Amino acid sequence: MDEPAALAAFAALSQETRLRIVRVLVEAGPDGLAAGAIGEAVGAAGSSRLSFHLGHLENAGLVTSRREGRFIVYTAAYAALGGLIDFLTRDCCQGHPEICGPLAAPRTCT
Amino acid sequence: MDEPAALAAFAALSQETRLRIVRVLVEAGPDGLAAGAIGEAVGAAGSSRLSFHLGHLENAGLVTSRREGRFIVYTAAYAALGGLIDFLTRDCCQGHPEICGPLAAPRTCT
DNA sequence: TCAACATTTCAAGAAGTGTAGAAATAATAT
DNA sequence: ATATTATTTCTACACTTCTTGAAATGTTGA
Predict the structure, then answer these.
(1) Which of A51, A52, B5, B30 is paired with B109 by a 20 to 30 Å CA distance?
(2) Sheet of B33-34, strands arranged across
(3) Does pTM top 0.85 for this prediction?
């Protein structure tokens, strides 16, 4: 992930509704979730607002979409999220690995 | 780091000048850098623009400041950056550790 | 105390972002 | 064909953010 992509990702995640969408999609797993279900989960059902935010996230590369019958199913882009984590980690250790200490330790899933 | 703090951090990092400031400060290490030096490094010297962005970053908890004689010295808040990385990592693995795979691997400094 | 330096605060305008409702598109079922 | 369901696109407006220049604040040295 390069700087422009990271900027876009940060901008996408800096909005409550969008951050919620990403979390919901991450929980949903690789199968993804239809727009309607996402809307219900984040409290923006059937609205143009949802489309707006989903579009923003897709633009930033944090989610992908596919049509499935009547539904449009969104999925978290795990690779992009990982790339963002790497970007931050790199930034934080830049030239001074000793500073970050615990940051360089493995992060495990709880 | 909780959700509101993460939102503020993402918002702070979603701006080119501010992202540059953070990178410069991380490189500078724990001694930090005076506002003037930061301004030169990021191409916003002697401007109120710089203050605006530094204030934004400080508000988000990503940098701290202290007066040193005539200078005001800013330092990267490494703990906050680490907290943000943890937040993202947690989000990404939420309920589905097997999904993230490589994300759960140790991140090392290069 | 006065002058110079480093940085911030203030005020105003331009640009960008988020929200809401109505109309448009796409797929399915009758 | 028509109606129904799912979602997006369009338009307009309120709100926030970024930038700029001028004035104010705090610190040091002569």
Answers:
(1) B5
(2) B33-34, B71-76, B63-68
(3) yes
